[in-house]
TrEMBL record:
Residues 82-208 form the Dienelactone hydrolase domain. The lineage of its organism: Bacteria, Bacillati, Actinomycetota, Actinomycetes, Pseudonocardiales. SUPFAM superfamilies: alpha/beta-Hydrolases (SSF53474). Gene3D superfamilies: alpha/beta hydrolase. It comes from Amycolatopsis suaedae. GO terms for molecular function: hydrolase activity. Signal peptide: none annotated. Pfam families: DLH. This is Carboxymethylenebutenolidase.
Length: 210
């Protein structure tokens, strides 16, 4: 796996953010913002960042924090700074995407409904806690092509996921929702489902960031 690095990034306007990132060895295919789970930038998040770099993406996870839980404003502010970092690194605007896991999955949908990116993927996070808006209320407003991947064996509500699928389909961008009966929200209960979900994630970015 490609090694990750952590730096403090400061914009000319004074905005600053800690970022953990990994760079591909070869040509950079595009840039991906990786939104972390509730526990922050864990070893698992670093592994995902490194794995995405192995696939040719400049991947970067902002260290987000919020008092009492992340709000939509917290997430969008951190994502905007991270996107600026990617542009500073030479990534074209049409080759920018976002991916989130667990709580970060809900956060990725918030970003995809508020920013025009090349692609977005949410893995879990449908039954999130905190200050984020109900996802079914914003899914119809998606402005970035969005893929949602959910496991039925954990905390996810299957009926709610189907409602999310229905609402997202009304958006003016490409959307897809995939459910895995044997997977939980972290996709660590079913290795086969996890492997397929990973490949679907890569395929979504391959299709839309080009």
């Amino acid at each position: 796996m490609t090694q990750t690095h952590t730096d403090d990034y400061r914009r000319a306007d004074g905005r600053a953010l800690r970022l953990t990132y990994a760079e591909p060895d070869g040509v950079v295919r595009g840039g991906l913002v990786v939104l972390h789970e509730a526990d922050g930038v864990t070893d698992g998040v670093r592994f995902l960042v490194g794995s995405l770099a192995d696939e040719g993406w400049l991947a970067v996870a902002p260290h987000m924090s919020g008092d009492g839980g992340l709000s939509g404003g917290d997430i969008l502010g951190a994502t905007d700074i991270t996107l600026a970092w990617l542009v500073d690194r030479g990534v074209r605007a049409d080759l920018l995407g976002v991916v989130g896991f667990d709580l970060g999955g809900a956060a990725a949908l918030v970003v995809a409904a508020s920013r025009k990116l090349g692609a977005a993927v949410s893995v879990g996070g449908q039954g999130h806690d905190g200050e984020l808006p109900p996802l079914v209320e914003i899914a119809g407003k998606l402005t970035s092509p969005w893929l949602g991947i959910y496991g039925d064996a954990g905390d996810e509500d299957g009926a709610e996921v189907e409602r999310l699928r229905e609402v997202a389909a009304s958006a003016k961008v490409a959307t897809n929702v995939v459910r895995y009966p044997g997977a939980n929200h972290r996709f660590d209960a079913d290795p086969d489902a996890a492997a397929e979900a990973w490949q679907r994630t890569l395929n979504w970015f391959d299709a839309h960031l080009r």
